[in-house]
Write a structure and sequence with these properties.
Shape: globular
Largest sheet: 6 strands, antiparallel
Number of helices: 0
Order of helices and strands: EEEEEEEEEEEE
Helix content: under 10%
Distance between the termini: 25 Å
Structural class: mainly beta
Radius of gyration: 13 Å
Number of strands: 12
Strand order of the largest sheet: 1-2-10-7-6-3
Length: 99
């Protein structure tokens, strides 16, 4: 499976979307707390589950954009799980990646 990263966004290609997803009203994947800009999917549908996990269904090749902070990254057609990257530090401590 393919994996992609852009700033604090981690995208993992999956075989199929889980059941029970709700379509989001926008294509924002992650809001960057440090730059106050959004990582957004240009084409495709973004879904959320009851626990707040994000997924995307991309029917044609597209990009993820994040204003001037990062160059766009190309994402091929497919189904994806969207995660916020985490940085693990000392023992059980976890710190969210902020770009």
């Amino acid at each position: 499976m393919n994996q992609y990263r852009q700033g604090d966004v981690y995208i993992i290609q999956i075989n199929k979307l889980p059941k029970g997803l709700k379509k989001k009203t926008d294509n924002i994947l992650i809001h960057s707390d440090s730059t106050m800009h959004d990582h957004s999917l240009v084409k495709g549908i973004v879904y959320i589950n009851k626990d707040g996990k994000l997924y995307a269904d991309v029917s044609e090749d597209t990009q993820i954009v994040h204003t001037a902070d990062h160059d766009p990254i190309d994402i091929p057609a497919g189904k994806y799980e969207i995660r916020r990257q985490q940085q693990h530090i000392m023992g059980d401590m976890v710190q969210l990646v902020q770009d």
